[in-house]
Amino acid sequence: MIKKRIGQRTIKLNNLPTIIAASSVVGPKEGEGPLKDKFDLILTDDLYGEKTWELAESKMVKTVMEMNVKKAHKKLSDINLLYGGDLINQIFPSSFAARDLAIPFFGLYGACSTMSESLCLGSMAIDGGYADYVLTGASSHYCTAERQFRFPLELGNQKPMTAQWTVTGAGGLLLAKEGNGPKVKYIVPGKVIDKGIDDANNMGAAMAPAAADTIYSYFNDTKDDPNSFDLIATGDLGKIGKQILLDILKEMKVNISKVYTDCGLEIFDLENQDVHCGGSGCGCSATVFCAYIYEKLMKKEFNKVMLVSTGALLSPTSSLQNQTIPSVAHAVVIVNE
């Protein structure tokens, strides 16, 4: 008999995992944005001392995970599981970091939804009694994503105004079965939704329906009040996707407008940083949550937060084959108790 599911999709955890540490590393452009005082480390160059951008991204992942262990006064050998992923073929930045960390590793690909996906699965492992300490996280890099999904930087291609800027950054969390800090109370696994968008430069429009589906499912399952939240944050819908989400939810009779933001709008200054519709990438919601939202939770300035990381599940191959863009969004509700 299932005892932890509410309604169709929402899972209520019994043994609430505690987030005992959070860390973030970002690139130079992100370090010039509105959250510049919140990050643990701002790189002075996108290569982070490595020979390739992919190895730089891997180094960012390793750095945030080691930071978390140090902040919690633990050792790497104390950590039972590592969940993480990125955007690159075979998630090799995350896998190479896991090789160096030597922690049992579940590699994930949820595109830009990976931060919430890792937090969902890591929380379930703690709640189920399978681990005492779990690291979760995600990363992206502007240069690696451009090379894989769009055009080599050397071409200098101009982006349409609907496009977003992939965040160079990595964020990681350390979960524990007990401790002081905010706790994960609910998770909502996302469904893959495809409304026929085929423009890879309009990710917000592609992902907004998936975010709406997941958010609606939570409120429909729990009968919770949207205004009981201090913050509901989507991953990287950007300016266009944010408005589409609000419009879809309005039709569903769910109003989150008073407590809603998008991480892609928080990390950059849209007027002064030339990022068009905002930030995107696995590292977008990862760094904003780990640097900004987590700090607010620790200070009790936020006591109830929903993070809904959103991911467009396209690939270079699917785009070349003129396929539409399926998307997914996973939600995590974090509370102070």
Helix tally equals: 9
Domains, number:
2
Whole-number radius of gyration? Answer: 18 Å
Main beta-sheet strand count, sense and barrel state: 7 strands, mixed
The share of residues in extended strands comes to 15-25%
The CATH architecture of the largest domain: 3-Layer(aba) Sandwich
Description:
- With 337 residues, the protein is of the alpha/beta class.
- The chain has two domains: 172 residues, 3-Layer(aba) Sandwich (Peroxisomal Thiolase, Chain A, domain 1); 153 residues, Stage V sporulation protein AD (Peroxisomal Thiolase, Chain A, domain 1, 3-Layer(aba) Sandwich), CATH 3.40.47.
- 33% of the residues lie in helices and 23% in strands.
- The strands form three sheets. It has a seven-stranded mixed beta sheet, with helices on both faces. The chain has a six-stranded mixed beta sheet with strand order 4-3-9-7-5-6, sandwiched between helices. The chain has a two-stranded parallel sheet with strand order 8-13.
- Helix 6 links the parallel strand 11 and strand 12.
Question: Keywords, please?
Answer:
single chain; 337 residues; alpha/beta; Peroxisomal Thiolase, Chain A, domain 1; 2 domains; 15 strands; 23% strand
Write the layout of secondary structure elements.
Blueprint: E1 5-6, E2 10-12, E3 18-26, E4 41-42, H1 53-71, E5 81-85, H2 92-101, E6 105-108, H3 114-127, E7 133-140, H4 142-149, E8 165-166, E9 169-176, E10 183-188, H5 203-222, E11 231-234, H6 238-251, E12 260-262, H7 263-266, E13 279-280, H8 282-298, E14 304-312, H9 316-320, E15 327-335
Parallel strand pairs: 3-4, 5-6, 5-7, 8-13, 11-12, 11-14
Antiparallel strand pairs: 1-2, 2-10, 3-9, 7-9, 10-15, 14-15
